[in-house]
Structure formats: structure tokens, C-alpha cells
Design goal:
The structure holds 2 protein chains of 2 kinds. Chain A is built from no helices and 11 strands. Chain A is an all-beta fold. In chain A, a hairpin with a 4-residue loop joins strand 7 and strand 8. Classes of the chains: A mainly beta, B mainly beta.
């Protein structure tokens, strides 16, 4: 059973607008969450993370929000740029070494 | 040199072949990982090594055999694979998470494996 879920396989956004990618998880023991970005023919690249003791972390155009009671996190990209078009994976640490991934959301930013 | 390098990028092998995937990291990390990505599925953890010691084997069939000679190199030896083993195999590295410090995994570009 999947412990990290990304229910939207794809998202299209106009350039300059906000992109919101969502992720849900089931395990309340997860204590560290990450977003990765993946271009075709490349490995996932780390984007931004958040510890479970926080509810928001911001890095430039990227902000991650964590709602522990709802077991939900989201990634906001403002403003969206065409170069942001990629597949975005949500991931969560459970246990010492195991990073659980979602299935990804393909973001397309339309110029 | 990029942080995590995987070779080969593409590999086609028959079910009776033996081949190896190689991974090298130049980030000074001490944990290394093998992940498998199949179509429409999340990345699945296969193996973890901390300081060259295997600390996780995620119920992976014995036809996949990892080897970690040092903290910078990781191999995945393949033999008598099945067509359903065709997937993207990703190597990653990080600081040792057992110390309680969470650090992101850094991934290589993967090896696209096709078993015929």
C-alpha cells in the first residue's frame, strides 16, 4: 500500500502564475519531507525539504507547506516559469534510511 | 565531475546474461542506495549501504546482488533477470541518516535496463 500519494498525475499552468502541487501521506511517523524535480533522461534533483516540526519552508520561488493534522503537504511555485516543466516527486522519510516516494506529478508551464 | 555518476546509461541484456551497474559519488557521502523505478510506480528502495555495510535489503530477489567496496562506489550485479525487471535503476547517496540528521538523497541519472 502506498504511503505517499500524489493524486494528480499532471498539471498545466500559465507562465507567471502559481503552480500548486499536492501530496498526501498515511504514516504519522514520517518526520522529514522532500520534493524532487525530474527532467527526462536525468535522475531526480533535490528541490526543497521540510521537517515535521515546521509548517512552512521557503526557498526563492519555491515554498513547501506541511499540514500534519491532515497529513498533507504542498509545493508552491511562484511565479512559474517554462523551465519548471518537469515531473515533481514528493518523498517522506520513514525509519533511518527508507525514503518513500509518490508517483509524481508532471507540471507543464505554458509560455 | 557531477555528484553521482552511473554507468552504463542504457543496458539491454538477455535473461541468461550477467552484467553489472556501476555508481560512483564524489560528494563525500557515506550512505549509498539503489532504487528501482518502474513505469507508473513510485521509486522503490532496493538496498542501502552505510559506511560500506549493507543496512537495508528491501526483499529484493537474489538475482540482484549489490556490492559496496568503499563509501564512494556501489555496484549492482545482475544475473538471470526476468523481463519484468526492465526498469530505470537509480543510485543515490547521502550523509549517514542513522546519526539522526536528515539529509537529502542525491541521485545519479540512472541506468535504463531492458531485459529481453
Amino acid at each position: 500500500d502506498q504511503q505517499v500519494k500524489q493524486n494528480s498525475p499532471s498539471l498545466s499552468v500559465q507562465e507567471g502564475r502559481i503552480s500548486i502541487l499536492n501530496c498526501d501521506y498515511t504514516n504519522s511517523m514520517f518526520d522529514y519531507f522532500l520534493w524532487y524535480k525530474k527532467y527526462p533522461a536525468e535522475g531526480p534533483t533535490f528541490l526543497i525539504s521540510i521537517s515535521s516540526i515546521k509548517d512552512k519552508n521557503e526557498d526563492g520561488r519555491f515554498t513547501v507547506f506541511l499540514n500534519k493534522s491532515a497529513k498533507h503537504l504542498s509545493l508552491h511555485i511562484v511565479p512559474s516559469q517554462p523551465g519548471d516543466s518537469a515531473v515533481y516527486f514528493c518523498a517522506a522519510f520513514g525509519g533511518a534510511n527508507n525514503l518513500f516516494f509518490g508517483t509524481g506529478t508532471r507540471l507543464t508551464v505554458i509560455p | 565531475e557531477t555528484g553521482v555518476t552511473q554507468t552504463p546509461r542504457h543496458l539491454v541484456m538477455g535473461m541468461t546474461n550477467k552484467k553489472s551497474l556501476k555508481c560512483e559519488q564524489h560528494l563525500g557521502h557515506n550512505a549509498m542506495y539503489w532504487y528501482k523505478q518502474s513505469a507508473k510506480k513510485p521509486l522503490e528502495l532496493m538496498f542501502v549501504y552505510n559506511f560500506k555495510e549493507q543496512t537495508e535489503n528491501n526483499s529484493v530477489p537474489s538475482r540482484f546482488s549489490p556490492e559496496c567496496p568503499n563509501s564512494s562506489h556501489l555496484f549492482l550485479h545482475l544475473h538471470t533477470l526476468q523481463p519484468e525487471d526492465s526498469a530505470l535503476y537509480l543510485c543515490a547517496s547521502s550523509q549517514d541518516p542513522r546519526r539522526g540528521y536528515r539529509s537529502p538523497l542525491h541521485f545519479g541519472n540512472g541506468t535504463r535496463l531492458t531485459v529481453t
